Amino acid sequence: MRPIQKSNKLAEVCYEIRGPVPEKARQMEEEGHKITKLNIGNLAVFGFDPPDEIVQDMKMNLSNAAGYTDSKGMFAPRKAVMHYTQGKNIAGVSIDDIYLGNGASELIVMSMNALLNNGDEVLVPAPDYPLWTAAVSLSGGTPVHYICDEQQDWYPDIDDMRRKITPNTRAIVVINPNNPTGALYPTELLLQIIELARQHQLIIYADEIYDKVLYDGHKHVSIASLADDVLFVTFNGLSKNYRACGYRSGWMVVSGEKSHAKDYIEGLNMLASMRLCANAPGQFAIQTALGGYQSIDDLVGPGGRLLKQRDLAHQLLTGIPGVSVVKPKAALYMFPRLDPKIYPIADDQQFAYELLAETKVLIVQGSGFNWIAPDHFRVVFLPNSDDMVEAFGRMAKFMESYRKRHGASA
């Protein structure tokens, strides 16, 4: 029989967070091995539970969650999101500007589907959260990666961004706080990005899903709060700030200069209607989450579990010869660099595969985040301290063996 091939639209799509190396980890688990998963920010499996009041609200409202809702979402949670945007100083947002989704991921894909024609380009950071690159490609567009500079706290290189704008560029994606680097962008940098968008009439897509996961007293500024003459589309949700990944409850907010975007907004409305609605139980969690006690502050503040585990992970990683890490100001991840003189890696996926096979520690290679060289990887710092000490200890021994095998020494 004639082979059934996957769509050629998938040719440029990579999602290594759930790719071949994690598949090998799954097989090893089935064989009875215990795998330490440092590959994905799935908080619940590490004992980070959602606030009780969110869980109770969802239970109480399950009997009201069987029917379709408005295609953009229920009124009460959208109003709660509207108040949230007001608290972030994003001006001019009405209920109609807010779309609820099955996680921010669904809405990211929707926003690209509604915008892009074949040949259109979108500026996406490198490294990026790979869904952004995939969503652009699947929508017929071309992702163009601008460099984030590790020597400058992983901030976007504005000059590189400027050089990569062409007549086909439609938008700039800003991931702040950043996944995978944990960077948090200052207002001055955000204003420079806005100026580029203003000059070239570009949309700014702002992924702010980690805007409460902040360390050392740092504050997050929403880029959409800094101008009203550029079109912004901002994404957020309950997955990370409220440890509710599986609830698939996110939102998208259209703000700024909307008068010239009526046709695009009509496209968003069409796509929202086509999927009928976001899951209703997850919608019921939003109002309680946004209006309730913000327990994330306890986790990231002094003495908090996430803060302590970030500091421990940074200490353990930087203690390995040839490994350097920019200490994250936000989010749940680190993006360590392996000195190429000490670790001459040609294929970083193979490196991650060997690390898994020998240590039973699962990471994601840097190329999985569209990074330009095989010299980085991403880890989460979600396991408890004892498990991290054990995992990074095994990793350090593997690194020592790797250096010896390849004739390199620190």
UniProtKB/TrEMBL annotation:
Enzyme class of the recorded protein, top EC level: transferase
Record's keyword terms, sorted: Aminotransferase, Pyridoxal phosphate, Transferase
Cofactors (names): pyridoxal 5'-phosphate
Entry EC number(s): 2.6.1.2
This protein's record includes keyword Transferase: yes
Domain annotation Aminotransferase class I/classII large: ranges: 34-386
Pfam family, one: Aminotran_1_2
Family: Belongs to the class-I pyridoxal-phosphate-dependent aminotransferase family.
The protein's name in its UniProt record: alanine transaminase
Organism: Duganella callida
